[in-house]
Amino acid sequence: MNSVADMGGMHGFGPVRPEANEPLFDSDWERSVWTVGMSVMILDYWRDDESRYSMERMEPAHYLSSRYYEHWLHFLEEMLVEKGILTREELAIGHADPESHGSMAHLARTPEQYLAKFRAGGSIAMPSQSPQRFSIGDGVRARNLNPSHHTRLPRYVRGRLGVVHAVHGSFGFADTRAQGTGDHPQFLYSVRFEAAEVWGPTADGRDAVYIDLYDSYLEQAQ
Amino acid sequence: MAKEYTAPPSTPAIRIKAIQTVVFEKGLVQQQAVDQLVDLVENQIGPKNGARVVARAWTDPQFKQRLLSDGTAAIAELGFQGTQGDHMVVCENTPTVHNVVVCTLCSCYPWPTLGLPPTWYKSSAYRSRVVIEPRKVLEEFGVNVPDEVEVRVWDSNSEIRYLVLPMRPAGTEGWSEEQLVELVTRDSMIGTGPLDPSTAGAAS
Question: What value of ipTM does the predicted structure carry?
Answer without folding.
Answer: 0.98
